[in-house]
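Cross-check.
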Amino acid sequence: MISTFQTGRHSAADYDSHVEIDVDVAILGAGAGGCAAAAALTERGLRVAVLEEGSHWQPHQFQPSSIWAFRNLYQGRGTRTAQGNGLLALPGGRGVGGSTLINSAICFRTPPSVLARWRDESGCERFTDAWMNECFDRIWETLGVTVNPPEVQKDNNRIFKLGADRLGLPGDWLARAAPGCVGCGSCQQGCEIGAKRSADRTFLGEAVESGGAGVYANARVLGVETSRGRVIAIGGHTLDPHTEAARGSFRVSARHYILAGGAIGTPRFLLRNGLYGSPAGDNLRVHPTSGMIARFDHDIKPWTGVTQGYYVDQWERGFLLQVYNAPPDQAWLQVALPPAEAVQWMANLRRSAMAGVVVHDEDSTGQVTEDGIEYSLGDNDRRVLFDGLRTAARIYFAAGASAVVTGVQGAGTIDPACNLDETLKDGTSPWQIGLYAAHPMGTCRMGRSPADSVVDADGRVWGWDNLHIADTSVFPTSLGVNPQVTTYAVGLTVGTAVAGRVG
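Predicted model, tokenized:
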């Protein structure tokens, strides 16, 4: 049984009633940012404890079941939402590996224009092009990023590409951290065959194999001890992995601490422990998304193939279009039709294809509080969203679809003869739109001043000598693309900065 710091991977069954740990750096959260930070620290000879509320998982433990995945791999068991002028589903991962356990493994390098804006407007001096390119090259190699072959993409991706090509719209196959993908279509439920190279199996694996990291799953951090501008220790409960009931306690003392609980968890930890006030939790950014299902006269089987394998680049118009797939139980929730019509669509789901709009998020507003999440879709972002939906419909009609259906209440079944501008209107109330967002960002943004930011250019929380953040919450603005790679780069950057301070 464990009562003091030990390297390796540990979980509830390994702990004594109380665990006392003393290390160089403690990391709270084992998602992409926390795992990359651990790798950067341990390769510089530091002892690191990584604490994670969720469990360790091996590929063979995953099940192709939405119910099982929501219960075991999702924050709030898949029910996390934000509310403002509409309702926004906001899922996130839970477990060692964080959201990389359930994402589609999509890899975009941070757009150069976004990095330039972060440097110019927010003083993100460490994010130079040279440094970030070095990080990206390492991430590509560590994750085995590749484009999966067409036979693995299958028809749900291929038919969207066909329509885009016929309209002359720029697009490409998505680079993914899943070099062994066979197209089983279950990424959001955990990769059963281990083809997806999630954070726990890559950067965290490097940290553990170095002999410098101990990973403590089923450990819920609840409070902190502080003195004179420094965090002295953190403490909390070890949890029963099945009931989440407290089984014991732990206390971790370290020279430096890194928060990596994501754009929802990190500001809440700061607020609940009185470590920072406003603007912690402000500036919530997401990529507002809504989906579309298209009907064809031949089998597509949209639950098969790469979950998200192709995209259409409409960056200048404020959005990307990305193919996605969903099992039938989740597809049902996206059909905004009267019950009888919805049943007909579901009966023909094997002949359907799916794609969604990913909006940059420029004028929407959001906030994370201690107990809630608020988000209001801006007028411009709503206009961009509907521009994207109309474009996706035109792509499907160009590919031969006989009809499409969206998550917009009142739009009904849309056929090629419909006036899309009249059917999918920019002014539709957000309450009528089935909204979804998987990329929360910005709630502890990096900047030059504590008046309008939470961390400095090193990721250090203003006012604290040894408290840092390494996750999507430090993004000063919306990213505009899937954030996995940028999050890893932030982890490597902050981990390197902290190693310099500890050393």
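The chain has two domains: 8-60+99-105+108-143+198-280+443-502, 147-191+287-436. The chain has a mean pLDDT of 95. Passed to J.P. for a second look.
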